[in-house]
């Protein structure tokens, strides 16, 4: 199975997961259409992977699962451990081109683990191709888009919904993990991905990113434009990355620094109502994007 995500190709061998994971279906590419383009990574499923004996470099827990990461000069190894399920191991070369996992289908629930493994593989393999994945809600209007960024519960999805309700032509591009990539034309493109949190929005589409809004809840509404350095710092906080992996961290930092230098970014202190919408839409309308 070959997936095209953010105009990048990745191959998953040993399973046709799109039959069980409908979020992947819009991103499946016929193999004959992919032969002339480079595949950024290949995932082999059902492989035997030896567990690591030492302490992981990184451990995190979120959404009912734990993630352990080991870094060696040759490999990045990740253990994904659901609270009520079988652990799965993934081992990737440091350039993230060759990836193996011991995942095997055992129940419908196991495909959720495979979905997470594919997402991890995409995040870090695409990082080496000028792409970064951010925690954001993204709305497009025609061929332009804006991203609402902030911690869970700050009102990103609520604000995006206001756009969908009141701005003609607005549609949700992604509600959790859009991918961004600065292009050679001076524009930053933002893409839908197969991962959209609790909102089933899986659009294999892209738009020109025109504005970024860092959301803060407040008792009154206000908008303040940020400098590129502060925008970069805020973008990095919202970016998926392994901080101790210097290889991908360097590439992701370069991608986000370029994006921050090109895209107007704002702090939007907001209440969940139309007054905040007027501020964000006004900034979006008057933002300048580079011309080809």
Ranges where pLDDT stays below 50 over 5 or more residues in a row are none
Q: What CATH architecture of the largest domain do you see?
A: Alpha-Beta Complex
CATH class of the largest domain: Alpha Beta
Q: Which outline best applies?
A: globular
Helix content: 25-40%
Strands of the biggest beta sheet: in what spatial order?
3-1-2-4-9-8-7-6-5
CATH fold assignment of the largest domain: Phosphoenolpyruvate Carboxykinase, domain 3
- Largest pleated sheet: 9 strands, mixed
Query: Strand percentage, roughly?
Result: 25-35%
SSE class: alpha+beta
- Total domain modules: 2
Q: Can you characterise this structure?
A:
The protein is α+β, with helices and mostly antiparallel strands. The chain has two domains: 2-55 and 89-127, no CATH class; 132-286, Phosphoenolpyruvate Carboxykinase, domain 3 (Alpha-Beta Complex), CATH 3.90.228.20. It is 25% helix and 33% strand. Helix 4 packs across helix 5 (246-262). The protein starts with a strand and ends in a 6-residue tail after the last helix.
List keywords for this structure.
nine-stranded mixed sheet; 292 residues; Phosphoenolpyruvate Carboxykinase, domain 3; alpha+beta
Reconstruct the topology from this structure:
Elements: E1 2-5, E2 8-13, E3 28-29, H1 31-34, E4 39-44, E5 58-62, E6 65-71, E7 75-82, E8 88-93, E9 98-101, H2 110-127, E10 132-133, E11 136-141, E12 144-149, H3 156-166, E13 170-174, E14 179-182, E15 188-191, E16 206-217, E17 222-225, H4 228-237, H5 246-262, E18 265-270, H6 274-286
């Amino acid at each position: 199975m070959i997936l095209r995500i953010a105009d990048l190709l990745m191959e998953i061998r040993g399973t046709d997961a799109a039959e069980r994971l409908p979020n992947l279906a819009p991103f499946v590419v016929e193999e004959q259409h992919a032969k002339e383009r480079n595949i950024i990574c290949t995932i082999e499923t059902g492989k035997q992977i030896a567990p690591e004996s030492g302490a992981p470099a990184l451990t995190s827990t979120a959404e009912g699962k734990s993630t352990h990461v080991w870094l060696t000069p040759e490999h990045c190894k990740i253990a994904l451990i659901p609270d009520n399920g079988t652990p799965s191991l993934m081992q990737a070369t440091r350039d993230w081109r060759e990836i193996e996992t011991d995942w095997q289908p055992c129940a419908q629930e196991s495909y959720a683990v495979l979905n997470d493994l594919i997402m991890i593989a995409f995040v870090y393999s695409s990082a080496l191709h000028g792409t970064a994945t951010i925690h954001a809600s993204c709305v497009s209007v025609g061929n332009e888009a804006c991203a609402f960024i902030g911690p869970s519960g700050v009102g990103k999805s609520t604000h995006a919904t206001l756009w969908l309700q009141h701005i003609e032509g607005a549609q949700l591009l992604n509600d959790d993990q859009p991918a961004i990539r600065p292009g050679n034309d001076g524009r930053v493109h933002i893409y839908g991905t197969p991962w959209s949190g609790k909102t089933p929005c899986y659009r294999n589409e892209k738009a020109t990113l025109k504005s970024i809004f860092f959301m803060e809840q407040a008792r009154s509404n206000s908008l303040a434009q940020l400098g590129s350095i502060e925008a970069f710092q805020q973008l990095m906080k919202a970016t998926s990355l392994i901080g101790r992996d210097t290889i991908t961290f360097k590439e992701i930092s370069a991608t986000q620094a370029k994006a921050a230098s090109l895209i107007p970014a704002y702090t939007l202190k907001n209440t969940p109502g139309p007054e905040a919408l007027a501020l964000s839409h006004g900034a979006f309308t008057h933002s300048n994007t580079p011309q080809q």
